[in-house]
């Protein structure tokens, strides 16, 4: 009788242990299954990200190619425009129209002696028919070591809106004539403007004893 009871207790313990192990095994298998599902999900996310990255790279390469093509087209258009402008410029008459301006109150301005009073200055902006922006500066008595009344004229080529398509370096000549309102030939002065090179430049022309 005692042996039978002891045998039943052992079987019961074994059953309980088996059930406990089985439950742990089931939980472990469930955990492993969930981890495998997470791994599969992560792999899918990585695949999707790689696909998106490849699509982005393809799109960037296409954009770079389009940019290169557009840049090349722009350069070609600029070259064609320059060639047309140069041909048109070569066919044009190389002389500009006469430009006249008046200096007011010159008698008062020339009454100043350069060593005792600061010289006055007048500037006039003009634009040639070729597109060059120019400026004439009239500066009485600006030469400090001259006792007589003195007029300096500065001819400047200044920056303009057409500089990108104009022909450089710029070479030009011209004639500046100073006329008094009196009909006296002795009061007429003229000076030929020297040629100069460069995108921007200036040349002074001096008239002593004016």
UniProtKB/TrEMBL annotation:
The keyword ATP-binding does not apply. InterPro entries: TRAF-like, TRAF1-6_MATH_dom. Keywords: Coiled coil. SUPFAM superfamilies: TRAF domain-like (SSF49599). Residues 128-188 form the TRAF1-6 MATH domain. Pfam families: TRAF-mep_MATH. Residues 18-109 form a coiled coil. This is TRAF1-6 MATH domain-containing protein. It comes from Strigamia maritima (European centipede).
């Amino acid at each position: 009788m005692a042996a039978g009871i002891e045998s039943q207790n052992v079987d019961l313990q074994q059953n309980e242990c088996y059930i406990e192990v089985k439950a742990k095994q089931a939980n472990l298998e469930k955990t492993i299954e969930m981890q495998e599902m997470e791994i599969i999900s992560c792999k899918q996310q990585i695949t999707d990200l790689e696909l998106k990255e490849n699509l982005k790279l393809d799109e960037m390469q296409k954009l770079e190619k389009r940019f290169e093509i557009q840049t090349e087209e722009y350069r070609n258009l600029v070259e064609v425009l320059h060639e047309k402008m140069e041909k048109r410029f070569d066919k044009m008459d190389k002389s500009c129209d006469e430009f006249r301006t008046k200096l007011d109150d010159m008698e008062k301005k020339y009454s100043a002696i350069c060593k005792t009073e600061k010289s006055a200055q007048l500037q006039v902006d003009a634009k040639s028919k070729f597109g060059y922006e120019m400026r004439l500066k009239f500066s009485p008595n600006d030469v400090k070591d001259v006792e007589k009344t003195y007029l300096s004229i500065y001819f400047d080529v200044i920056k303009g809106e057409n500089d990108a398509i104009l022909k450089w370096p710029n070479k030009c000549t011209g004639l500046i004539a100073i006329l008094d309102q009196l009909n006296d030939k002795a009061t007429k002065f003229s000076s030929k403007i020297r040629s100069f090179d460069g995108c921007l430049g200036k040349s002074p022309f001096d008239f002593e004893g004016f």
